[in-house]
Amino acid sequence: MNIALWLQRQALAHGTRPALYLGTKEVADYAGFHHQAAALAGWLQAQGIAPGDRVAIFMTNCPDYLIALYGIWYAGAAAVPINAKLHGAEARYILEDSGAKLVFASNGLDQALAAAGCVTPVVAAAGDTYAAALQMEPVAAPQTRDAQDLAWLFYTSGTTGRPKGVMITHGMLAVVSLTYFADVDAATGADQILYAAPMSHGAGLYNMLHVLVGAAHVCPASRGFDEREIFDLAAHFGRVQIFAAPTMVTRMTAVAKAEGRSGRGLRSVIYAGGPMYLADIIEAEAHFGPIFIQIYGQGECPMGITVLRREEVSDRSHPDWQGRLAGVGRAQAGVELRIGDAAGEPLPVGEMGEIMVSGQAVMPGYWNNPEASAETLQGGWLRTGDMGVLDAAGYLTLTDRSKDLIISGGSNVYPREVEEALLTHPQVQQVSVVGRAHADWGEEVVAFVVGDVTEANLDAHCRGLIARFKCPKAYMHVAELPKNNYGKVLKTELRARLVKPGQT
To answer: By C-alpha distance, which of 363, 298, 366 is closest to 97?
Structure first.
């Protein structure tokens, strides 16, 4: 089943229902949303886009993002959403690896692709070609697709430093969407989903279920995250659901408390994408009330591993409420969860091991990467690389994160990717990148560098190669990196130096 059928059905049944907003301005109702997506599909097919082809989206949050996404699906193609915060060179790699036939890009991002030497045809969302495409003869219905067909190619960085394409099928999107209703939250046509986090990631993965029920889709006029804008939009619309990284939640709490804002109109805040510290969620829930829900997922099992329901987040009566609140909840309906040892064999309750997942929400593999697929998918189980503990009631607590992953502002930063960028500087001899605790962003990127080069030079070099959010916020010059007897850098010692500065 093509997941885009949900839009066609909603348009036929409730075409006049408001669908797309930019700020408080209605851009399209469901009939208009459907018509524009179908017209764009007609244009794509006229360009030779066939079922199974990949078409990328390199755009900031806006209503045209959803029009492009559903236009791609209506044409039977697979979407390749690219984080708008990425450097043009990083986006170019994704385009080349995915074999995308063309890319829709926001104003400015098309220029970033050109500067990076991108050869993939670019359609500027603010340009004449895109406007003409929306005037094409619309297709009659979404192209027929099977549940196992590729719908969304999600690029997530790996510890090798090169992004891997997670294959997300139409069936996976349907399972995750329907599981939302069973486990996470309710949603109706009277609700609104507000996209303040990147639509290329978790926030966008929640669009389908809101299309299914005919809810409104609201993109902030700023096209990003602004605490005051979120509060104003929530108060205007009245029944807003938002997906947020933990750092976004803590920033919202700080602004609300400082300015006396209640968060009126925020019905549900689903948070994930990094560690939510116990004190922070207690403070947020105390101020805003029972509106918070935590989920845990990975691109390889998008949004669908565990959930801590709103009543569990707000519960203060259970004997172990703090322990549960510090965890990530219980398995969602679409998956089976277990803790495995080094060989992947199940461990008893209460023992720490690797979190493993199986079920219909799990990816079939990585795009054109059989080696990584075989390493990650073993015996029908997804080996997440995250460490955790399950208690007797099925509640999961994360005890560590995959490898040395840094999560800054809800975005994943893999140290090796940053290290490889810095090591291309001719004066950098050695480098090691770690995360340092940050009050607003959860963590910030710090680089320990061996080499005679200034911080300004390093920063300019790094920004020319990778996204700004991945670039180190601090550079520590050291005579040598601490290593064990096998020559492996001791990152635990480097992290300790950040806690106790002065050790070089």
So the answer is: 366
Please return the burial class of 119, using the count of CB atoms within 10 Å of its CB with bins 0-12, 13-18 and 19+: exposed
Contacts of 173 (CB under 8 A, 6+ apart): 3, 151, 152, 205, 208
The 10s digit of each residue's pLDDT in 313-344 is 999 999 999 999 999 999 999 999 999 998 99
For residue 417, what pLDDT is reported?
82
pLDDT tens digits along 159-218 = 445 789 999 999 999 999 999 999 999 999 999 999 999 999 999 999 999 999 999 999
Q: What is the CA radius of gyration of the chain?
A: 23
Q: What is the DSSP letter of 469?
A: G
Q: What length does the chain have?
A: 504
| The overall pTM is greater than 0.90 | no
**CATH fourth-level superfamily of 1-12+22-176:** ANL, N-terminal domain (3.40.50.12780)
> What per-residue confidence (pLDDT) applies to 440?
84
Query: Which residues are bridge partners to 150 per DSSP?
Result: 169
Residue intervals in the chain for CATH 3.30.300.30:
406-499
Average of per-residue pLDDT values in the chain: 93
Question: Regarding beta strands 377-378 and 381-390, do their DSSP bridges make them parallel or antiparallel, or are they unpaired?
Answer: antiparallel
What is the β-pairing status of strands 301-308 and 292-298?
antiparallel
End-to-end alpha carbon distance in the chain:
58
What CATH class does 406-499 carry?
alpha beta
Nearest Cα to 422, choosing from 474, 463, 480? 463
